[in-house]
Specification:
Elements (H helix, E strand, L loop, with lengths): L29 E8 L3 E8 L4 E9 L9 H8 L4 E2 L4 E2 L2 H25 L9 E9 L1 H8 L17 E6 H5 L15 H8 L8 E6 L7 H10 L22 E5 L4 E7 L8 E7 L20 E8 L2 E6 L7 E2 L1 H13 L13 E3 L5 E6 L2 E4 H24 L5 E5 L1 H5 L2 H7 L10 E5 L1 H8 L4 H12 L1 E3 L8 H7 L7
Parallel strand pairs: 1-6, 6-8, 9-18, 11-20, 12-14, 18-19
Antiparallel strand pairs: 1-2, 2-3, 4-5, 7-8, 9-10, 10-11, 12-13, 15-16, 16-17
Helix pairs in contact: 6-11, 6-12, 7-10, 8-13
């Protein structure tokens, strides 16, 4: 798959040692597994712990999408009791979500380790030594079967903020920590998969800390990948890969639930500060609620150009187009707007076709189109992110360096993003595409106790902000929906 799975790895402190054994005790057989459980995409990365070398990556769509494309719908499903009938019993919401992701992880890790095994020296059989799993707070709650009942309404209190190490068996059985749900008994299929697992029951699994209900461990991991320093740390205590920042650092992990973080450097009179928030963008950036949407794999349109009034798509793999990925959606709508196919409000002006229900669309290829609703979905998503970014830029004392993380953020064409108004133009010359920062940060924690401690300190010094409670938020959100807002 061509889902982006790599990111900027921070420098690993050499004095920290391996998290489960000294490096001298490791053999080429010992593998570390880093997992990023995203709302839409799950990525598994395999590392040689002795050589500190990446061996394999597997990425798939999160199978939980069948229970809802976004975290709100899945929380609602998780609150569902078992449904009983005269002859059948349908599993409870918590059991369905937990076993769904655990079965997927078992299969993905098995596949990734199989790929990695071919790269080991002759005579060495792979042995999973440790696992780090990151993700937003809701996704980690489903992995561990932690209750999400109190996240369905204000004050949105998560059952756990994680930051603990447990065993794979405890994770599988939903007994990793407190506040877990009572699960249904596994089905025969589940038991078969668990019995054949290549992951030893006693394998240690670390879950990095979450900041709040909707600002998760993936944000902390991305902060580590981006080189965020711990506020108030003395110059002598800076970690490898860090510097004494003189300008603000702005991080956005753009996806279904987009997290935005601002590091404001300190002064002689006050230490630095970290402000963070989340923007419920929905799945449009990952093309999950788009009529012809698909992952960034072979057959997906990832960008277009328009020449002489003709739309020319670029398709991953140079095969006939099957659909549109997230970066392709931004490229298409940016080019359509620039060439007056759609107006500022998003309404289709020309090149209009009609779907069976009478609604308007624009044909990209004979098999792929953009509907009026697709355009609206992207507008709502980009407005949520844009409003959060504007708030943070206004809060910063000077123009920040802007790091875009996540698979979508790393693949997106920055000029197309600017044209649709995804980010303020003042950031244009200060953008860094970080890659999958969450996975990179989680991978680094396979090797370093010091970076796990840094994760705790970053969480301690982070101040969550509820954007919806900000004065004039709704006004700014509605103002950012139109295109041309730069």
């Amino acid at each position: 798959m061509e889902i982006l799975t790599e990111g900027k790895m921070p420098e690993i402190p050499k004095t920290s040692g391996n998290t489960s054994a000294s490096e001298s005790a490791l053999s080429p057989s010992d593998l570390g597994i880093a997992v990023d459980v995203g709302t839409t995409t799950v990525v598994v990365s395999v590392w040689s712990l002795s050589a500190r070398k990446h061996l394999a990556t597997v990425a798939e769509k999160n199978n939980q999408v069948r229970y809802g494309y976004d975290v709100i719908k899945r929380i609602s499903f998780a609150c569902r009791p078992p449904l009983t009938g005269s002859s059948i019993v349908v599993e409870s919401g918590p059991s369905a979500l937990h076993y769904c992701i655990l079965m997927q992880l078992e299969k993905m890790i098995s596949k990734a380790v199989s790929i990695a095994a071919a790269k080991l020296p002759r005579g060495f059989r792979p042995k999973i030594n440790s696992i780090v799993i990151t993700g937003n707070t809701v996704m980690l709650s489903f992995v561990c079967a932690v209750t999400v009942k109190n996240m369905a309404a204000a004050p949105f209190a998560p059952g756990s903020l994680f930051d603990f190490t447990t065993t794979w068996l405890s994770v599988r059985e939903g007994k990793a920590c407190e506040n877990t749900e009572t699960l249904d008994n596994p089905t025969a299929e589940m038991l078969s998969i668990f019995k054949a697992s290549i992951i030893p029951n006693e394998t240690p699994v670390y879950f990095p800390p979450c900041i709040g209900a909707f600002i998760g461990a993936d944000t902390i991991c991305s902060m580590i990948s981006a080189g965020f320093p711990v506020p108030g740390a003395a110059q002598s205590n800076l970690q490898p890969g860090e510097s004494a920042l003189k300008v603000p650092l702005l991080l956005a992990d753009i996806g279904t639930n987009s997290e935005i973080v601002l590091y404001e450097p300190g002064s002689e009179n006050s230490p630095g500060r970290i402000f963070c928030t989340s923007a419920a963008a929905g799945p449009a950036f990952e093309a999950a609620n788009i009529a012809c949407g698909m992952s960034a794999v072979e057959g997906a349109i990832d960008k277009i150009s328009i020449e002489g009034g003709k739309i020319i798509p670029h398709v991953i793999g140079n095969v006939p187009a099957k659909g549109i990925c997230g970066s392709g959606l931004v490229s298409i709508i940016s080019n359509l707007y620039e060439n007056n196919y759609i107006e500022k409000s998003g309404a289709i002006l020309k090149g209009k076709s009609q779907l069976g229900d009478g609604s308007a669309c624009i044909e990209i290829t004979p098999a792929v189109y953009i509907s009026q609703q697709d355009i609206r979905n992207l507008q709502l998503a980009k407005s949520a992110v844009r409003t959060g970014l504007e708030y943070m830029v206004e809060k910063a004392k000077s123009i920040p360096v802007f790091c875009i993380a996540g698979g979508f953020g790393a693949k997106i064409d920055l000029q197309s993003a600017k044209k649709i108004g995804l980010y303020p133009s003042v950031l244009e010359q200060r953008v860094v595409q970080l890659g999958n920062g969450a996975l990179a940060g989680a991978s680094s924690m396979l090797f370093s106790k010091a970076l796990r401690e840094k994760a705790r300190l970053l969480k301690k010094h982070s101040f969550p902000i509820n954007l919806a409670a900000i004065h004039e938020f709704q006004t700014k959100f509605l103002h950012s929906i139109d295109f041309g807002h730069i």
